[in-house]
Predict the 3D structure of the following.
Amino acid sequence: MNNKLLVRRNIVGYYMLIPATILFLLINAFPLVYGLILSLTDKNYTKPKSGKFVGLENFKSILHDSEFWSIMGYTIVYTVFVVAFSYLLGLALAVLLNKNIKFRGVFRALALFPWVIPTVVAAQNWRWLFNDQLGFINRTLMELSIIKEPILFLANADLARLSVIIVAIWKSYPFMMVVLLAGLQSIGDEMYEPAYIDGANRTKIFWYITMPTLKPMSIVCTTLMGLWTFNTLSFDNIYLLTQGGPSGSTYVMSIQSYYTAIYRGKIGYASAISVMMMVIIALAVLIYAIAKYTAAIKEQRNAGDVNG
Amino acid sequence: MVRQQSWLTYVLIIVLLAIVLLPLISMVSTSLKTDAELYGSNSLLPQNPTLDNYRYVFKNTDFPQQVINSILVSLTVTLISVFAASFAGYALTRFRGRIFGIYKGFLYLIQMIPAVLMLMPLFMVIRSLGLYDNLVSLMISYTAINLPICIWMMKSFYETIPYEIDESALVDGCGPFMAYVRLILPMSASGLTSVGIIAFIYAWNEYMLASVFIRTNTLTTLSVGLSQFSQQFSVEWGAMMAASSIATIPAALFLVFAQKYIVEGITAGAVKG
């Protein structure tokens, strides 16, 4: 094919990107740039004359705010717990539902449920289960005389921090399950046969054959879930369960930014908080890249030792 | 594989699923209970199942209108997403050039932006377009926000279709766009279905933007309507659970009739990307 034809082909390609690009520019790119600019101003809805450029002033005050540090800490803990435990639950179900059993399709469909229902439905259902007077969990535990007083799942500060994590794990594990199932299905029986012949037991097969094969999938699904949880999922989940309460104990960064903007009108400061979220993600990506790089170098060196 | 200790597998699966599905079981059961039973007993199954809660939701609340709004928004988002993602996905697999490479990187980066950072600026965009308190604001925002993952899905789908097919059409003198319309598009039904379902579910479920962009109760979506049940009516649990059950119907239908496409959508968006 000559060059002219290739160029003509590419032009069609550009045309085909137009619909998506218009939407991106309007809904993603412009608000992003504007948000970044706002983070450098003292824009405040309650003060008509605000909106001056203040440089990194917002970021300075954020870093000096002890509330910010504790909220950031909880956001990270929240994300790590949700990712880790939804991964474990997803992995367990993926392994179980990969077996050749009856009703496999039905079980898989049922296990997928939490992922596809609206977050609002999930939150209302759990608020109902967690309810101190009428909730199923408290009533059952009381009827069985395991507890005397109802457990205040969402009204006690420490418990609320845990409860919102449990609900998030519940909502997130099906994604892990689906991705890991796809990974498990790519492992053919022929990969297991030599191990069976050698008499390896199931635990060994799992750790030495299944898990290494699942590694790439595991990295992808935990990374994506970490990103989603940190950026958006945590907001919906916590906002709908506790509104960040009781007395701010379940604030994550996105909720802090939201309240700062909506209720205090401090758009500039709120934008700076969300920019800090991007900084944390960038740092996490950087740490990951460095870890991967040093591991690769180490491996190379080890290989060199063996050879030389 | 070897059928071994299958009873243990069944027990484990059923126990895990029972725990995991408890909220949904309790939702449906509560929606069918009378108020007296709801406050009186702790049984997981309703003794005298009644549809009173559903009748209440349909007659006395804005919820039916909100469901219609959600259907309108979700169907529009689905249509635009399928159209735009298919175009862009095809362009990104079939054409070579620097722009296309940058575009792919951009699709990655866009997913790293926290939604709250864009919330206020996006709100200003919506207001200056005169779309505040208008469902169109949600239609375009949902489409754009979900589009990167949809494009990614279509891209990985088109990668599985051999390039020889459209290249043979090009040799026959067909333009690349016609090759796409005549040959590739008819083969894309399953990919487009996956994208459509994922887009529909996202739009049906979204809460944050709807709660900020829409003010009028009869104009909002079911997610916002549902969240108001606890404030508006001093928590009427029975009615709320009836509304929640209605809101879960599309998810249930998709899982029964299109589980394969959901799974393909999730794995294509995540794994092959």
User: Anything to note?
Assistant: Chain A is about 75% helix and 0% strand. Residues 1-38 of chain A form one domain. Chain A touches chain B through 96 residues (CB under 8 Å). Chain A has a mean pLDDT of 87.
